[in-house]
Amino acid sequence: MKKLTCRDLGGPCAMELTGDSFKEIGKKSYDHVMEQINKGDQVHKAAALKMRDASQEEQRSMMAEYEKKFNEAPKI
Question: What is the pLDDT of residues 19-28, one digit of tens each?
């Protein structure tokens, strides 16, 4: 199991997300961001819009960076 924060994945906060795979942490990150947006959090909404509005190449680059962070994170 590994741990990353919302901020590690392009978000604005220090919420810790754990998982055994990058895909699992990515799902938890998505769920966390959507929950915050549904509560009216404009900072999380801005982060989500930044990802949504990025070009496909920019999105691939961001995802590669986030996956690298996952791969480099120590096991907990």
Answer: 999 999 999 9
Q: What is the pTM of this model?
A: 0.90
Domain that holds residue 14: 2-72
DSSP character string of 22-76: HHHHHHHHHHHHHHHHHTT-HHHHHHHHHHHHS-HHHHHHHHHHHHHHHHHSPB-
Could you give phi then psi for residue 21, rounded to 5 degrees? Answer: -145, 160
Q: Is 9 helix (H, G, I), strand (E, B) or coil?
A: helix
- Based on the structure, what is the number of domains in the chain? 1
Strands 2-5 and 16-19: antiparallel
Contact 74, 2 (CB under 8 A): yes
